[in-house]
Amino acid sequence: MFAVIEGIEGSGKSTLQVGVAEALRALGHRVTTTREPGGSPLGDAIRALFLAPELEVDPVAEAMLVNAARVQHLAALIRPALERGETVICDRFVDSTLAYQGYGRGLDLAMLRGLCEIAVGGLVADVTILLDCEPKLSRHRLDERGSARDRLENENAGFHGRVREGFLALARGSERHVVLDAADSREALVAAALAAIEGASAHG
């Protein structure tokens, strides 16, 4: 089972990932949690560059960087875990590339899909859980966090609005997507995400 959690900054992806992993482990599942960019020493190094607030990164370079990290991530962590029969829960995957670099930056979606297809080699998430978050709530949560913001967190509300609309467009009409309201309680979100994963597993 390969489950992905998507959403804009401040949507609660990391919190949901922890909650769902805990619930699945309590049910006896072996679970691997990971994130993109990241998931390997190379991926983590790329992540640090990708998010560094002091750098200006061309949108095409962004897409290349995240897909380079993705290739290594799949080879080093995701595919081996899936082959062992584990449930993998990933914070971001291909939809983030399409939403951020496509809808957010304005790159051609067909080009981005081609890059991502090369990177993933046919692997598709069994279920993608989208935490739909109003940009206003996102900014409020980032302000509450109080830590220094990374390069994407520093983007303006217009950018995050386009990214949000991109995520929703990708989810529209897709059977593997489940859209949840990021403003709901942690308990409600964990329960809904768990049900989505169990439902996808039953139909797999």
TrEMBL record:
<comment type="similarity">
    <text>Belongs to the thymidylate kinase family.</text>
</comment>
<dbReference type="GO" id="GO:0005829">
    <property type="term" value="C:cytosol"/>
</dbReference>
<dbReference type="GO" id="GO:0006227">
    <property type="term" value="P:dUDP biosynthetic process"/>
</dbReference>
<dbReference type="Pfam" id="PF02223">
    <property type="entry name" value="Thymidylate_kin"/>
</dbReference>
<keyword id="KW-0067">ATP-binding</keyword>
<dbReference type="GO" id="GO:0004798">
    <property type="term" value="F:dTMP kinase activity"/>
</dbReference>
<dbReference type="GO" id="GO:0005524">
    <property type="term" value="F:ATP binding"/>
</dbReference>
<dbReference type="InterPro" id="IPR027417">
    <property type="entry name" value="P-loop_NTPase"/>
</dbReference>
<dbReference type="InterPro" id="IPR018095">
    <property type="entry name" value="Thymidylate_kin_CS"/>
</dbReference>
<dbReference type="InterPro" id="IPR018094">
    <property type="entry name" value="Thymidylate_kinase"/>
</dbReference>
<keyword id="KW-0418">Kinase</keyword>
<protein>
    <recommendedName>
        <fullName>dTMP kinase</fullName>
        <ecNumber>2.7.4.9</ecNumber>
    </recommendedName>
</protein>
<dbReference type="InterPro" id="IPR039430">
    <property type="entry name" value="Thymidylate_kin-like_dom"/>
</dbReference>
<keyword id="KW-0808">Transferase</keyword>
<dbReference type="GO" id="GO:0006235">
    <property type="term" value="P:dTTP biosynthetic process"/>
</dbReference>
<dbReference type="GO" id="GO:0006233">
    <property type="term" value="P:dTDP biosynthetic process"/>
</dbReference>
<keyword id="KW-0547">Nucleotide-binding</keyword>
<keyword id="KW-0545">Nucleotide biosynthesis</keyword>
<feature type="domain" description="Thymidylate kinase-like">
    <location>
        <begin position="5"/>
        <end position="190"/>
    </location>
</feature>
